[in-house]
Amino acid sequence: DGKLTQQLYETLRTLNVSGYEVVALTHTTTGRLSKKDQCTLKVSDYAAEISDASDEAVVSQIPARVGSSSPDTEKKEKQRHIKKPPRMKILSRLTLIAQQADDVASLAIQGIGSSYDIVAVQPESAAAFEAACEHGVADLISIDCSQRLPYHVSRKPIEAAIARGLRFEICYAPALRDPFARRYLV
What InterPro entries does its record include (predicted)? Predict the structure, then answer.
């Protein structure tokens, strides 16, 4: 619906105060894209609001000096000794789990990918992998290492993807959490 939930808003504030400079909010979908997959969240509108709220949160957490004369003096004293967190950049990301080559082609046909800052394709078949590498309609090709790949990765499509400026993303966090899935990582 284009709005942040309160929990997500608080998480983004915490990340900003912790020093994160860039965060991507991901929408994951499977199969062909449709109009409902269009990015409706205007993330740039929230970056300033979150940064301002984070500034206030950091200032309010600093203890006042003992013997300060007034609340205004205390606040000025706090602000003088604090380094404000940088304005965090929030990006939108689409991850398309592609089961067929046509799923990858739907990125170009629908034009939905252009509404996101980052577009990733996670191929689940050899045809989808080759289409993602050869068409270059995404920014990233995401490889899920928590399960055995149902296809063989060959050198030719990888070289074609690199020549087009695509990057590969290895998703290994789920494999680290699950000892059974860890064997597919190696």
Answer: Pol/histidinol_Pase-like, RNase_P_p30
pLDDT above 70 (res 85): no
Query: pTM for this one?
Result: 0.75
Q: Spell out the residues 6+ positions from residue 20 whose beta carbon is closer than 8 angstroms to its own.
A: 88
User: How far apart are alpha carbons 44 and 38 in whole angstroms?
Assistant: 16
Spatial neighbors of 12 by CB under 8 A, at least 6 apart, are 4, 23, 46, 50, 88, 90
Q: Structural domain of residue 85, as residue ranges?
A: 6-182
Classify residue 114 by burial, with Cβ atoms within 10 Å: 0-12, 13-18, 19+: exposed
Token representation of residue 145: 């290492």
In a domain, 76, yes or no: yes
Classify residue 112: in a domain, yes or no: yes
> What's the domain count of the chain?
1
How far is CA 61 from each of CA 79, 124, 145, rounded to the nearest angstrom? Answer: 11, 47, 41
Element at 110 (helix H, strand E): helix 101-110
Identity (one letter) of the amino acid at 121?
A: V
Q: Average pLDDT of 16-25?
A: 89
Return the higher-pLDDT residue of 52 and 129: 129
